[in-house]
Design brief:
The protein is mainly beta. About 5% of the residues lie in helices and about 40% in strands. The structure holds FE2/S2 (inorganic) cluster (FES).
């Protein structure tokens, strides 16, 4: 698995199918990439809705790669 920390922005995950469970709610999204909020200001958590630009969120970019299962 590869996570990209976008400079001053969200965490992007690449894949094919994402199953997201939040409390009792479960959602499946089939898409090549999702962006997760890390600024805390999104109105659509856990997803990034672009609000990080309005709130001036600042954080370095980077990559986290997880090897194995
Ligand atoms: S990182 Fe984009 S809205 Fe929070």
């Amino acid at each position: 698995m590869r996570l990209e920390f976008v400079e001053n922005g969200p965490i992007r995950l690449e894949g094919k199918r994402f199953r997201i469970r939040l409390g009792e709610k479960e959602e499946v999204r089939e898409r090549p990439r999702i962006s997760l909020c890390r600024c805390g200001a999104s109105a659509n958590k856990p997803f990034c809705d672009g609000t990080h630009k309005q709130v001036g969120f600042q954080a370095p970019g980077g990559v986290l790669e997880v090897e194995g299962d």
